[in-house]
Task: inverse folding
């Protein structure tokens, strides 16, 4: 049962005044059915992002963590399927750090799959006529870093908490293209959270192709 969801969102970065993820988080309902939605702001800084997220997880002990971030250039709300063990920042973060070709956790696995029902989330968003696509890359900047760090923390602490990441497009107020109205993004993320509450996780469960070759 998903009774409490922690939703994180990033502050503005890369010369923007607005981060749509934070605008969404501010407008989410406090409850969806019987499920409590808690929101938290995360600095777009490698040195702080994972730490602040961990503090919020430890404080609230939610059943699921859904991290939100901006992906300028995308046309749709995009639940992320995978986080990779790599930082290769295209720009400096909000503290001026520019990290290139660095592992997130040198002792960690190459990647983690989201443990959220990502396909159900995409369907739930589309059911509201809001564009949604499954994504297989969260990039190599602070968003991928946060998704990997959260999944790595949960895996290494044996915490039974679902987690993953959803990227959102620009909103019209940012004067960038493509853009999706903020109201649609709020409705889309609310629908995705509804799918999480209603659904079971759908990590890849198909038969292994390699296994079938023997
Ligand atoms: N998007 C950036 C970092 C913060 C955000 O909202 C990213 O995609 O990595």
Result:
């Amino acid at each position: 049962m998903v009774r409490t969801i922690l939703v994180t969102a990033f502050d503005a970065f890369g010369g923007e005044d607005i981060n749509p993820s934070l605008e969404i988080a501010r407008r989410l309902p406090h409850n969806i059915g019987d499920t409590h939605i808690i929101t938290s702001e995360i600095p777009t800084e490698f040195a702080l992002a994972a730490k602040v997220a961990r503090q919020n997880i430890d404080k609230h002990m939610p059943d699921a963590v859904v991290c939100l971030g901006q992906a300028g250039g995308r046309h749709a709300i995009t639940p992320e399927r995978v986080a990779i063990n790599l930082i290769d920042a295209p720009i400096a973060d909000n503290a001026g750090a520019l990290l290139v070709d660095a592992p997130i956790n040198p002792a960690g696995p190459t990647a983690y799959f989201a443990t959220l029902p990502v396909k159900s989330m995409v369907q739930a968003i589309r059911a509201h006529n809001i564009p949604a696509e499954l994504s297989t890359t969260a990039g190599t900047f602070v968003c991928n870093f946060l998704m990997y760090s959260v999944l790595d923390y949960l895996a290494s602490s044996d915490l039974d908490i679902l987690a993953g990441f959803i990227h959102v497009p620009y909103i019209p107020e940012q004067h960038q293209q493509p853009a999706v109205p903020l109201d649609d993004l709020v409705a889309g993320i609310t629908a995705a959270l509804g799918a999480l509450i209603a659904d079971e996780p759908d990590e890849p469960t198909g038969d292994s192709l390699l296994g079938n070759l023997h």
User: Anything to note?
Assistant: The radius of gyration is 16 Å. DSSP finds six helices and eight strands in the chain. The domain at 4-198 is CATH 3.40.630.20 (Aminopeptidase).
